[in-house]
Amino acid sequence: MSDDPATGIDPRIALAAREKTAARFGSADISHPAVAVLFELASERLAQAAVLDPGLLEPPPRMPEISTPPPAGFTPSRRMVDDIIPPPLPRAFITLQEVLGNPQSSLRDIAAVVSHDPGLSALLLKLANSAFYGFSGRVDTIERAVSLLGAAEVNALAAGAAVSTLFRDNPHPELLDLPLFWKHSVACAIVARFLAERAGLKNPERFFLAGLLHDIGKILLAVAEPEMTAMVRDMSLRDTLPETRAEREIFSFDHGELGGRVIAKWRFPEALALAVAGHHDPLRAAGDPGPVVIHVADMVALALGLGARPDPAVPPLSPEAFASLGIFPQDMRLAAVDLDERLPPLAMAFLDGGMR
User: Fold this and answer.
1) What are the helix and strand counts (H, E) for the chain?
2) CA 250 to CA 129: how far, in whole Å?
3) pTM value?
């Protein structure tokens, strides 16, 4: 069978790629124009990758047998959402917040605080010299990096670095693959910023930070309640339930709600807490675009195969949420191009960098 002249790919590979992609999109409505664009993108990308690595078309590895049935007499919500206490943020980040909150502070003051934290300094210099921002010339001082990035951007990057640093060690890798988790989070952040800019929303860096932290509740659940988190995983697999629904069955709350509460406990802005808490129910916070942007960005990242697990399932897209952004289905292709360019340097920086 000859290659498809339009793509140069063996039609058998293209068909197998579409079939595997269709399985991932089983819960999404492919008749929605934006979802249809993402489906075609995901199929095309898988087919292109499979030309070099045919193993990508194999079914996903068999999941382990269900091993954590609910114990006799089990009742949900052994802990209430407010009972899960997050670790404190790094002192360097708190100092930076104090400086940023002082209207008398200059960029030099901000640079001085950043310079005292080796991890954050390395992160900002690495990013300022990367394709993510595309600045001309070599950026070799923290003060120049802060000047080029601006206070709002430095704040968003520092907040993401501070939180990611808290969870560098993973006591339960069987429940959560941290490199994949953070790669998905960075992808969601990049797409969220792109969507916010495309929709003409102000302060797009706040949507970047919301995307970066949108799934932080997953880490907290895995650390605080590993046995119950395993029950969530197994229930989701056994009963083919969305993970958030299984979380509500086991905990009586989901990772989004927990993440929003924790963001508030860390004294981040209320809008950030709302965006994190509502990204699986984006119409709940009427009038605030944060949950809507993160809902769509999360779905885009998962559709493109960037999830906390290989071959992630694609969740439903809220048509009302998508429509409220005033963007177009073909913007999904532009978002994918932007993600391809920006993800490698930023993901590498966050996985290698951080605050001390």
Assistant:
1) 17, 0
2) 45
3) 0.88
Angstrom distance (rounded) from CA 220 to CA 255: 8
For residues 299 and 315, the answer to whether their CB atoms sit within 8 Å is yes
Helix, strand, or coil here: 74?
Answer: coil
Tens digit of each residue's pLDDT (9 = 90 or more) over 126-183? 888 887 787 878 999 999 999 999 988 898 888 888 888 887 777 788 888 888 999 9
Distance, in Å, from the CA atom of 276 to the CA atom of 192, rounded to the nearest integer, reads 12
- Helix-helix angle 142-149:118-128, to 10 degrees: 60
Q: Which residues are CB-contacts of 318 (< 8 A; sequence separation ≥ 6)? A: 282, 283, 292, 295
Helices 204-213 and 270-277: angle between axes, nearest 10 degrees: 50
1 pLDDT tier (thresholds 50, 70, 90): very low
C-alpha closest to that of 294 among 267, 268, 322, 313: 322
* Residue where the block lists tokens 């600045």: 135
| 301 close to 183: Cβ distance less than 8 angstroms | no
Cβ within 8 Å of residue 244, ≥6 positions away:
254, 255, 256, 280
Tokens of 189: 């952040």
Six-digit token string for 160: 């993401």
CA 257 from centroid of its chain's CA atoms: 16
The one-character DSSP state at 242 is -
Full set of structural domains in the chain with CATH: 1-58 (no CATH), 82-352 (1.10.3210.10)
Token pair of 100 as six digits = 């940023």
